[in-house]
Amino acid sequence: MEQGFNPNFEAIGNAFVQHYYQKFDTVDTTARTVGLQDLYDVGNSYMTFEGVQVKGRDAILQKFGSLTFKTIQRGITKSDCQPLADGSILVSVLGQLKTDEDPIQSYNHTFILRPSAQSFFIANEIF
Questions:
Q1: pTM for the complete prediction?
Q2: Per the database record, which ranges form the NTF2 domain (predicted)?
Q3: pLDDT band at 3, cuts 50/70/90?
């Protein structure tokens, strides 16, 4: 692999997907925000959620806290990961989601995980 590419991108990306959705899919909004807060950078994380863009950990967690569903069921159809030249990892997740009594909907969720110290943070996220 070329210099800068993370050779463990697949394992890191797949472990991230499992960790992220385990924390996100709780119905307790406080537990959700506490569980996800360490995944975002204070000022360098961006998220677009259904067309609304927010920047920074606090704004992202506030958006998550405003979600009104009481129950959530998720099925991941496929997750794919690619290494980026700066050591970051692109993660794409396709699946189906059901909240409360709403019909099942397909979704696409994309992340860029950027290296930071001995770990990664979500630099970019689009749902």
A1: 0.92
A2: 12-127
A3: low
